Amino acid sequence: MSFQNMGLSRTEVISAMLSIDNTEENNYKSEGPHVKNVSGPKRVYGGYVVAQAYKAVKEYARKIKDENPIFSMHYNFLSSGMYVE
User: Does 3 fall in a domain?
Assistant: First the structure.
């Protein structure tokens, strides 16, 4: 089933995918929809994780009133990501 069939626009889908919640002082989690079966069942695309990490850092910086921009992120994709429902 596509997201359009669910009545969601692309903007709503992307916004939901990148949504994060501050669960504790320095912890964030995502409940957004994950695109299943892109590379296999229960897999998550690495770009989601990188985008969510960027958003979490920006949110934390805003919370502690740090005005410095994020100018570099380094990451390596070592294996498939998995999500837990």
Answer: no
Short-list 71, 81, 20, 70, CA closest to 47? 81
DSSP 8-state code for residue 44:
E
Is 29 strand, coil or helix? strand
CA distance 66 to 60: 9
For 47, other C-beta atoms within 10 Å of its C-beta total 11
Range of the domain at 23: 10-82
* Rounded CA separation 52/46 (Å): 10
Express each pLDDT in 18-77 by its tens digit.
788 888 877 888 776 655 544 455 667 778 788 888 888 888 888 888 888 888 888 888
In a domain, 4, yes or no: no
Residue 22 lies in a domain: yes
Residue 26 phi, psi dihedral angles, 5° rounding: -125, 20
